Amino acid sequence: xxxxxxxxxxxxxxxxxxxxxxxxxxxxxxxxxxxxxxxxxxxxxxxxxxxxxxxxxxxxxxxxxxxxxxxxxxxxxxxxxxxxxxxxxxxxxxxxxxxxxxxxxxxxxxx
Amino acid sequence: xxxxxxxxxxxxxxxxxxxxxxxxxxxxxxxxxxxxxxxxxxxxxxxxxxxxxxxxxxxxxxxxxxxxxxxxxxxxxxxxxxxxxxxxxxxxxxxxxxxxxxxxxxxxxxxxxx
Lengths: 111, 114
Known about the structure:
Oligomer: heterodimer
Shape of chain A: globular
Structural class of chain A: mainly beta
Order of helices and strands of chain A: EEEEEEEEEEE
Distance between the termini of chain A: 41 Å
Largest interface: A-B, 28 and 23 residues
Radius of gyration of chain A: 13 Å
């Protein structure tokens, strides 16, 4: 089955800095890669996703890149704000399968 | 548009008991998946229901079972509770016809087994 590795487990940045979270996956047939943000006491919230026919996708301060050859994808957050502090999960899925999540990255943005 | 809702928010049970968790899918969504999230871990897939039929299951024992109703709401039942069943249980729904469609999660039910 699919295996998703996520790094780092914890990331501390100053407000205004950029943050990058990286994930690798094992199943070359995976073709949909969502990212979720989970705040304390809440369920995961879908913040951005990318499909295998696209190399990069951007939504305001958030962007995701995908390298299918290397089987890795990354989340980039620019101009970080304290409200970006949360746990971020990457996930991967292929057709007729189910989401496999990474173990999460706790992002701490200090004012 | 109403999002995914779950009840109850918190639950405390003792080992050996049985529990039922409930989920109402987002309006228009016909597929519901359940996940278990242990503390400090990512969600782990339990099973999925589409049009009242289970059509996918993760590595969980048979004492984890579920139902989906005609209105697409769903239940997760866990029998013979064990201490390791303590976790956040998440429900997610999607409305597309493929597994490549966006899944939206509810707030979860925090289950504590003593």
